[in-house]
Amino acid sequence: MIEIAHVTRSYGAFKALDDASLTIREGEFFSLLGPSGCGKTTLLRMIAGFDNPTSGSIAVDGQEMLGIPANRRPTNMVFQSYAIFPHLNVEQNVGYGLKRLRLDATEEKRRVEEALAQVSLTGLGKRGATELSGGQRQRVALARALVMRPKVLLLDEPLSALDKKLREQMQVELRRLQQAVGITFILVTHDQYEALAMSDRIAVMFGGKIAQVASPKEIYQRPVNRQVADFLGGMNFVKAEIVEENGASMTVDTLGFGRVKTDKPAAFVRNGKAATLGIRPERLRVLWDDAKDKHEVAGTVVDRHYFGEITHLIVDIPGLEKPLSVTETNNFGADDIPVGAPIRLAYDPDALVAMAD
Ligand SMILES: Nc1ncnc2c1ncn2[C@@H]1O[C@H](COP(=O)(O)OP(=O)(O)OP(=O)(O)O)[C@@H](O)[C@H]1O
């Protein structure tokens, strides 16, 4: 278990990390997600021991890490630029860190073999480091970290140099590997899909602060504020006025959707009677012909964008400040709905989430 408590890292007056607190559980695949410059790499480097907090503490399994050099910590880092040694072969690259442990030759060989098998590189041990594809180099870098049997593996944008197909394949593999070896993985990424696809939990960061920590589904469906909602994909925002609050739910009035009862997230910050409701574009469904739904809004299609398997419809709803963005599959012909056509959209009130502005 990793306990990050009130960690701040200042560069002069600038705080790259500002009072960040976070608990990462043992065996968890945890991602630090946020835009460039939000402080995620800074945090990862401090866990690794390559940098020190200006204040605050970082503990692994109850042991304070401050003052412990990187090579004495139960962590190991895989870098974005894999930094494998070009003059060594795969085996030598993977076994490099083991030299320090002075294992006997058989044991060293066994551990290298084991690490190569974990990343599906069995048989490639004698290959030169320069005779590998990008994906294979990435695996060597992973094996080189795993061979040290760290308690925590730290990954700094490890897939960003790979093309899209390979990246998606490696995401699945990394996730499978993490489950197989059972050690804690902490991944730094600015790619929301990568974080959603791989993680048990995600911390979303902005400007040196942690905005939300939750499961991928919770982060996507119940973002605590507009910034988190926006970063995780498209979101329609609707102005609302709170009529009644009742524990975890509340009733709000909107001009476009009328009066609706919605969930109130635990972290909801009250700002008088005003609130913002969010609904993801794919949670609005086109109602065809005479189909009826208990919850529907009616409007006019003002724009249409074709994306092959899906169509994006922009729908003007009377009373709403901004038109709604709707994602519909093309199974039923959403790609043929003409601009200017009247349209009705069904929604599930559960898909409307209240958030702080
Ligand atoms: N040595 C340094 N001196 C001054 N400022 C720094 C230093 N290192 C990092 N920063 C600043 O701290 C902030 C956080 O940097 P960090 O590398 O953690 O961001 P990041 O979220 O990982 O972004 P990226 O995805 O671009 O790497 C940035 O604004 C960066 O410019």
User: Class of the largest domain, according to the CATH hierarchy?
Assistant: Alpha Beta
Element-level helix/strand string: EEEHEEEHHHEHEHEEHHEEEEEEEEEE
CATH superfamily membership of the largest domain, which one?
P-loop containing nucleotide triphosphate hydrolases
Number of strands: 20
CATH architecture grouping of the largest domain: 3-Layer(aba) Sandwich
Strand fraction equals: 35-45%
Total discrete domains: 2
Strand order of the largest sheet: 6-7-8-3-9-10
The residue fraction in helices comes out at 10-25%
In the predicted model, the low-confidence regions spanning at least 5 consecutive residues are none
Bound molecules: adenosine-5'-triphosphate
- Characterize the biggest β-sheet: 6 strands, mixed
What does the secondary structure layout of this molecule look like, with pairings?
Elements: E1 2-11, E2 14-24, E3 29-33, H1 40-48, E4 55-60, E5 63-64, E6 75-78, H2 90-95, H3 105-118, H4 134-146, E7 152-156, H5 164-181, E8 184-189, H6 192-198, E9 201-206, E10 209-214, H7 216-221, H8 226-231, E11 236-246, E12 249-254, E13 258-263, E14 274-279, E15 284-287, E16 296-306, E17 310-316, E18 324-329, E19 342-347, E20 353-355
Helix pairs in contact: 3-4
Bound molecules: adenosine-5'-triphosphate (ATP).
Adenosine-5'-triphosphate is lined by residues 11, 16, 34, 36-42, 190.
